[in-house]
Structure formats: C-alpha cells, structure tokens
C-alpha cells in the first residue's frame, strides 16, 4: 500500500520537508487505489406479498413456444385478467437465466413487451415493467442491451404519479446502467440526469432510495468523469444540475434524515468527489460543513443505539470528508476550521471505538480521515494533545499492521509540527511503543516507525540519546541495513546537538 521505504535508511541527511514530501506521495497513491475500488452491484425488487399470493411457485424454464404463447395472450387475450396472468407467468419464467436468453433471441419479444409497457392499462403496464426488471437483473450484458428500446419509456414514467411504479423504473434503470455502456450512451441524450434531478424532489422515501441507487450506478461508470459528471451550462450533466445541492440537503442531520436514503446519496457524493472533476464547487456549496455536522450526529447516534446499520452511512461520510480535505479549495474556504476542531476529533474517536468493537474493517477509514485532518492543521494536532487522545491512538497499534501504519502516520503529522509538539509525544508511552513496533517483521510498520524517530531526533535533542539508552537498536538488529540505521541515528543525533 505504501512504497519507498528503503530510502529511509540512507546515511545522508534527510530534512522534514523531504519526509513530508514522501509521505504525501504515498498518500496520493493510496487515495488513487481507494478511488478505484467501486461498489458496482445490481438489485432485485420483488413484492413479497405478491410472491406469497402467487403461492411461491417454483421457477420453471420456459421454451420458445411457451414464451410466444404468453406474449400472445398478454397482447390479445379476451379478458384483462387473462392478459395479466400471462404476464405474471412470463415474469416467473424470466427469473431463470435460460429463459432470459431464449426470450431475447425471439424476434419481436422485446417490442411486444415495450408495447405492453406503454398500454393504457395500469396492471398490464406494471407487469410488463416487472418483466423488464427481471431482465435488467441478468448477469449477461446482451440481455441488458436487449432492453434498450424500453429505456426512453422508463425515463418518461419517472414523472408519473405512482410511487411504486417510479421505484420499479428506477431500480430497473439502475440495473441497466451498470451493465452496459451502450445503455448509458443512449440514456444521456435521452435526459436521464434532468429526469433524476426532477425525481429527487419526491416526498416518497422509497423513490428517493431507488433514485440514489440509480444515480450511484451512473456515477460509477468509467466514463463518468468525462461524460456524466462535469460542470456545464446545461443541466444534462450532474454538476450542472440541481443534484449536488439536493444531495447535500438529504444529508443534513436532523429528525428528517432517513438512513436508507442517506446511505445511497452519501455514496453518490463519494463517487462525485472521487472523480475530482470540480470538488471546489462542492466545497463552496457547503459539503464540508454538511458532512462535518453529519459526522457529529453519527457519533451521537452510535452512543445511543446498537443499530448495526449505522456503519453503512459512516463509511461513505468518512471517505467523502477525507477526500475533500485533500483539495486546495478546502484550505481556501476555511477547510478544517469549518469542521469545528475539537468536536470533530471527539466524534471521530467515538466512531473509532465503535469501529474497533463493531466493525474493525472500517478503522483504516477513520484513521485516514484523522491523517488528513492533522496533515496540514496545527490546530487539530493541538486538539489531539489537549484532549488526551494520543494514548487511545497508541492503543490501536495492536489491531493490525494496516492500522499501525496509519496511526504512526498521524503521529508523524504531529511530530513534524515542531519541537513544542514533540515534547508532548516523547518519551511517555511512545518510546516503549516504538521499541515494540520496530521489533515487528512488517516492513511498512517498521519504516513508518523509523520515519517518526527521524522527526523526533530532529526536534528533540535528547531523543536519540534516550532511544540508544533504552536499547532501541537491539530491537532493530534482526532487520537488514542495521549498520546504515546506526549511521543514520548518530547523524541525526549530531544534527540535533549542533542544529
């Protein structure tokens, strides 16, 4: 995850600026890796009550003749109930991949289904949409592309009056979007962004959640940074529409905040930020403030409830904050100061404890945010010390090597602020802690420990001598290049004595 460790053990001088530069390069590489980790998925919306009413029938693979007969009855049946039953039977069959393949190979099958989708009979429309939804859930891209003739109608129905029907159309579009670039190429000129922007004002939570899903699928497309997100004078692209402002409104903490809706749109915001198209715009629209307040609200919530779903929202919120703090615009508009230093740090440590006990895999996310908060902010480093948070931070070193590297990086951020900060770090618990980390076999942890030692030696004249007296070098003799390390320690000691 981190690179360039071998260079830390050279015997030549190494200043604070060079150390800072190396660390920022490694952090940039890590951010890039995290941006490339997308969460592409498909969702299947089925009405449980309807499934039970239909007797939970076993899915039967349909052949060409059966499909053709169901389509004929749905199109030309003498009674509406008969036509509806035919579509229900077809929908059940389309739950099987083999039936889906047979269906799209039949000439005119999609055209017939689209015709039923556009009929003036609501029940037939609904069942035809459910059939398309089953097709959209297919893992075969050919099946998704076969649904292309229906996309313009699905978009049109987003402005309808039935929230259930709109929800179904949104999930179907979301499934199709993620499957095929051909689908996205067709949807963009058809006006999917303005259609979604109109939907986001819906009062129905189920619609908003489905909308968040569809939008997140669109934003994860590989061509999104160039063709979907960029600012423009037209509202056909995301940053040129009202979507960002509405997303931030839906993430405002308070009694109206809905967890399911917030989770979907927090990921949408994450994908927009990761595109790095125009994060300055988001910051000027108040993204940092909104996310900071939401972080405080989540920290309070995890103390009140055992609800295991909160981590689903905490993760994208923390990632959004972490990435926005790396932007130059964050400093221009007040950056970390918008986040109310001590309150944010206290909230973040509450969440770190929550992660530690409930979701350890999210600890690196919280520590990455702490790293970005402290990287260029002496006030946050001061708050860490004044709130006595160094000791809880050190306790996290035993969790894993990945966590250890991030904890040590935060400590480096503090140490590089100068002698006054180093006085609060050294020796205390840090000296025995570093002796332990230097004895580990993980080169990443050892490398970051050495980097912290270098900063301490530069700023604390007595640190090198204290380290030697505590037999720190003995803990390092199992590592390669120990002779070079000894030269480095003595060189740093001389720098501290004469500097």
TrEMBL record:
InterPro entries: ARM-like, ARM-type_fold, Armadillo. This is Transmembrane and coiled-coil domains 6.
């Amino acid at each position: 995850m981190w690179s360039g460790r071998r260079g830390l053990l050279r015997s030549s001088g190494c200043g604070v600026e060079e150390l800072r530069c190396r660390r920022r390069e490694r952090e940039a590489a890590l951010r890039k890796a995290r941006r490339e980790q997308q969460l592409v998925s498909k969702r299947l919306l089925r009405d449980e009550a309807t499934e039970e009413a239909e007797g939970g029938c076993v899915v039967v693979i349909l052949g060409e003749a059966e499909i053709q007969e169901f389509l004929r009855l749905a199109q030309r049946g003498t009674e509406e109930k008969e036509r509806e039953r035919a579509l229900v039977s077809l929908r059940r069959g389309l739950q099987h991949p083999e039936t889906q393949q047979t269906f799209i190979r039949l000439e005119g099958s999609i055209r017939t289904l689209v015709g039923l989708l556009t009929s003036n009979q609501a029940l037939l429309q609904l069942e035809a949409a459910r059939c398309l939804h089953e097709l959209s859930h297919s893992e075969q891209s050919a099946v998704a592309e076969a649904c292309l003739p229906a996309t313009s109608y699905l978009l049109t129905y987003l402005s309808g009056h039935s929230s259930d029907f709109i929800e179904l159309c949104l999930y179907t579009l979301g499934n199709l979007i993620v499957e095929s670039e051909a689908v996205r190429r067709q949807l963009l000129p058809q006006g999917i962004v303005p259609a979604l922007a109109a939907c986001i004002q819906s009062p129905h939570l189920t619609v908003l959640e489905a909308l968040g899903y569809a939008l997140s699928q669109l934003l994860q497309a590989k061509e999104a940074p160039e063709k979907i997100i960029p600012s423009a004078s037209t509202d056909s692209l995301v940053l040129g529409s009202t979507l960002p402002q509405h997303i931030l409104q839906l993430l405002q903490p308070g009694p109206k905040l809905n967890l399911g809706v917030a989770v979907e749109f927090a990921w949408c915001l994450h994908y927009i930020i990761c595109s790095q198209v125009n994060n300055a715009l988001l910051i000027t629209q108040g993204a940092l403030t909104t996310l900071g307040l939401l972080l405080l609200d989540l920290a309070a919530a995890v103390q009140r409830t055992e609800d295991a779903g909160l981590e689903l929202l905490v993760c994208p919120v923390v990632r959004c904050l972490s990435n926005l703090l790396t932007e130059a615009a964050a400093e221009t508009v007040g950056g970390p100061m918008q986040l109310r230093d001590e309150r944010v740090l206290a909230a973040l440590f509450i969440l770190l404890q929550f992660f530690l006990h409930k979701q350890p895999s999210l600890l690196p996310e919280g520590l990455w945010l702490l790293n970005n908060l402290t990287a260029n902010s002496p006030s946050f480093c001061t708050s860490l010390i004044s709130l006595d948070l160094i000791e809880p931070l050190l306790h996290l070193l035993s969790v894993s090597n990945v966590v250890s590297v991030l904890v040590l990086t935060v400590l480096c951020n503090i140490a590089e602020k100068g002698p006054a900060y180093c006085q609060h770090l050294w020796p205390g618990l840090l000296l025995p802690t570093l002796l332990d980390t230097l004895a580990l076999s993980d080169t990443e942890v050892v490398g970051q420990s050495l980097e912290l030692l270098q900063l301490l030696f530069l700023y604390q004249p007595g640190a090198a001598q204290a380290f030697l007296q505590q037999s720190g070098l003995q803990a390092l003799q199992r590592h390669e290049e120990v002779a070079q390390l000894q030269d480095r320690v003595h060189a740093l000691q001389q720098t501290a004595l004469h500097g």
